[in-house]
Amino acid sequence: MTTTPTGKEARRYPERPIVGVLAVVLRGNRALIVRRANPPMPGRWGFPGGVLELGETVAQGAMRELFEETGVTAEPAGVLTVIDGINRDEEGRVRYHWTLVAVIGCWQSGEGVPGDDADEVRWLTRAEILELNLPTAPALLPLIDLALERNAHGHPGVTADDRGGGGHPNRLVVR
User: Dihedrals φ, ψ of 43, to 5°?
Assistant: First the structure.
């Protein structure tokens, strides 16, 4: 009798894509980022996020992950983009397949302290991330660029003073 893997083991060689959420929170040109404590990508810097739970909307899931990982609270302000993360093994089989929904959060409170899946939390500009030569998740810098661009073009939902939302998401592919 074979058993079906559960929990994090079920994420390897999945039968279907796994939906994850990311919380993209900016204050001015500084992004709230975390150094991942656990797989995937331990030691790399990225946005707080994780697996969407049954019964949650993407906005609820992203804000839950934000609070669990950083202690920061934010109001969801719309989808920034959707990211396809597909990783294949040497034989071409899909090892991991993530569909990540990046949700913009308007900062409300908290400075950020490491929580359940984070080793460290920082508010950094894109330039500081590059200057410090931080190991980053593949989507971190493109997401920062997209959020800053959205903010610069008057699309609401990125800063705490601008609580709109909407717009059509762009799509990123991460391999």
Answer: 85, -10
- Count CA within 13 A, CB hemisphere, residue 56: 17
- Say whether pLDDT at 5 is over 80: no
This prediction has a pTM of 0.83
Q: Which residues pair with 22 in a beta bridge?
A: 49, 102
What domains does the chain contain, in order, with CATH numbers?
7-163 (3.90.79.10)
Radius of gyration of the chain (CA): 16
Q: Which of 53, 120, 131, 149 is catalytic?
A: 120
**Is the distance from CB of 157 to CB of 75 less than 8 angstroms?**
no
Provide the CB-side half-sphere exposure for 12 (13 A, CA). Answer: 6
Does the active-site annotation cover 75?
A: no
pLDDT tens, residue by residue, 7-17: 566 688 999 99
